[in-house]
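Technical note accompanying the year-one report. For the benefit of new consortium partners, we illustrate the data format agreed upon in the data management plan: each record pairs a sequence with a structure-token string. No post-processing was applied to the example shown here.
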Amino acid sequence: MVSATAVLSSSAATTVSLQKRSDEELVLGFLHREREALLAVNEGRLTWEQVQAAAATPRKLRGNGLQETASEVINDYANAQYYGSVSIGNPAQSFQVIFDTGSSNLWVPKVGCSHCGNPFFGKKHKYNHESSSSYGQDDGSFDIMYGSGSVSGFFSLDDVTLSDGLVISGQRFAEVQDAGGLGLAYALGKFDGILGLGFTSISIDNTPTVFENAISQNVVDQPIFSFYLGDNQPGELTFGGFNPAHFTGELQYVKLSSATYWEIGMDGVSAGSYHADPNADGSPITAIVDSGTSLITGPRKEISALASTVGAKSTITGQFTIDCVKLDDMPDIVFLINGQEYVIPGKDAVIQAQGTCLFAFMGMDFPKPGPQWILGDVFMRKYYTVFNYADETIGFALSV
């Protein structure tokens, strides 16, 4: 527990503005996937069972023995609602990236990249190392297998600027030369690449992360970064400190159970008559705090029971919708973490647009050592979140 002292006043703390995609875009994406799935079934290209199996396939997590379970389907990132700017090289080349605590590598498309948008829609900013005086060659290859194919490229070295005055020198990152495995979701998306804020232990080729290098190069005063995810307004990512103006009360710190993803233990989850208790062996429920995932995910059995309790109904793609007129009757959803209750009011557990109310929880079963739950943007929007790299802790406080 720590008081809300003005850590942001440090000259070495800096902020990045995070832009928020509209709820309408996210819901329209959901409706599009529903239509595509129904069309595939009606045309006989897929069975109901195949659609349901695809919806339940673990996606996004990789590293630490998880590669075989599914790497990273871009839908997770396409649905991520917050992105911001980062610059690479000298003179600076600017990119829009997802700042993702659920992965650990920085990658952007290179000039000449295949399947990286087009001039008419989904245009991407592309890195040109020939234009950078600080570029350094690296012989390492970069490759990720996605659900629909591979994303490939190669590693390079260059200066990375997170905000004015915060420069990481000689950062190893990936130039993607073929993004075909990401599909149309990336081609149409508003972001160019991804900047991972997890731990080096899960990075591809054991590449030191951007933030780990920021610490070792002494460009941040403290080994922490903090997220404020604005509700219907831009958010803020602070490197080297936190901003007390965005939360109330004291930060409650939780020790990580694993310094791979930002993984913590939970004592339980409840809503109305629904209760998820610690595991049968007495161990805590495992969860990762992931800024790169919009929704909250949990085991399929648990999410189905939770959805039933709040009155949500399953869809063909494995998500849930609820009658919009019933929002006032939804119970609060309570996460018990380190003895502290973190409440998500029922209305805040719904993403509403186009006359559709999407329940912001989705069932997903990850085999061990993967987590049981993912606390994505829906949780982080309610609670200001401080990530302490050195102490291996996460701090939460109610956002304002």
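Partners are asked to follow this layout when depositing records. The longest strand covers residues 149-163.
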